[in-house]
Write a structure and sequence with these properties.
This protein has seven helices and ten strands. By secondary structure, it is α+β, with helices and mostly antiparallel strands. α3 packs antiparallel against α4.
């Protein structure tokens, strides 16, 4: 479950990194206010041991998409915001896109993108600090032939994290979409311990 940890009176690149280091993440609301949120318990995915459903494994072997990294970060965030419009139209605010784009330019925020025929059809983004990657959101443009694109982007992300020496993949909260990849829910204090160890790791985004 999500718990409110306070209003983000200051919201810039430095405050966002500090929040992640302490186990918080931002979420906007319909009044254009950004809040710091804690998820308890915390859902994490196993880097190097993620579960791949058979149907998705078969699709991956067909290589339906071209994967790119960090080529259209801001656009990925914008499409993630659009994808969540019916569920929560205010979750990703324009201010958040600006700050995360700044973090991207500083080397902390990254996107994994699925392209088909030169069109961006799926993707995800998150923040990397040390050996920890904090997954934020993903999208799929089914109307453009991107069915399951975001899921394959997750597999591509996990592959890259394993190759780069990352040890923590934070997915915040378990849901039906993410639970199919394995992972587990852990108490927040255990998560804080894993986080403290992970951010000290000299991992490399490849």
């Amino acid at each position: 479950m999500y718990y409110h940890a306070g209003i983000a009176h200051r919201f810039d690149a430095e405050s966002v990194l500090t929040a992640y280091l302490n186990g918080f993440f931002p979420m906007g609301d319909e009044d254009d206010v950004i809040h710091w949120i804690v998820s308890e318990p915390r859902f994490v995915l196993p880097i190097g041991a993620i579960h791949v459903p058979r149907s998705l494994e078969r699709l991956a072997r067909k290589q339906p998409f071209e994967f790119r990294v960090d080529t259209e970060f801001r656009r990925v965030m914008e499409l993630c915001a659009e994808a969540r419009a019916e569920e929560n139209p205010s979750w990703v605010l324009p201010r958040m896109i600006d700050v995360y784009t700044e973090l991207h330019h500083e080397g902390f925020a990254h996107s994994v993108e699925a392209w088909r025929g030169g069109v961006l059809v799926g993707g995800l983004y998150g923040v990397a600090i040390g050996g920890a990657f904090f997954g934020e959101s993903m999208f799929t443009r089914r109307e453009l032939g991107g069915s399951n694109a975001s899921k394959l982007c997750l597999l591509e992300l996990e592959r890259r994290l394993a190759a780069g020496g990352y040890i923590l993949l934070d997915s915040q909260e378990s849901n039906e979409h993410m639970a199919q990849f394995g992972g587990c829910c852990i108490e927040f204090e255990e998560y804080r311990e894993r986080l403290a160890a992970a951010v000290r790791v000299d991992a490399r985004w490849r």
